[in-house]
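Q: Convert this sequence to structure tokens.
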Amino acid sequence: MYVPFWLFDADVFARANFRAENDVRRETADEIITETSVYQCERAGSMHFVRIPVDGSERMDDAYMDSIEPFDYAELMPFSAAYLTGHLADKYDVDAEASIPRADARMRATAVDALQKTVKGYDRCSIEGDPSFLRESAAISYAMLPVWILTTRYEGKPYTFMMNGQTGKFVGSLPVDKRKSWLYPAIALAVFWPVLYFIVQYFMT
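A:
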């Protein structure tokens, strides 16, 4: 199926505060002392995003669509109905305006992660408070991207699998056989317990 996507180009500005910590450990004759130094790190910066995809189909699982990325935009072609021959094609039912909050959320998370990666040289780093995020400009384009979709049923429950039509990247939820999930650990225990027993006996004698 060709799935409709909105592609966002945007310039954003993000600012975030991070708590960074370093530990120094000292040992005395009767105790171990750990001294922790705490630092407040402020980071801010601008970032340019190109073609951030947000699917425009309500019935497509957003988590699955995100998981099969990335698509190869170098292979994008001007639209022609001939490309759809022999394939299903969905039409968007989530318009560009309604897709903006999700695009902003994706860009915000990426920008804050990039800021956090600049906080280096510490044992630990965590974000503090709510980062500020400003989308300064945006351009939106429309594209149809190829996705293979398989839905099957197992014991009355539906399972869906999706694959990137360009790269073959595959995601889905697999059914679990509860009987075998208990059987395999039992078999492993039955096989390795005698071995473990003889090893213990060997070192104890």
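The chain is about 25% helix and 45% strand.
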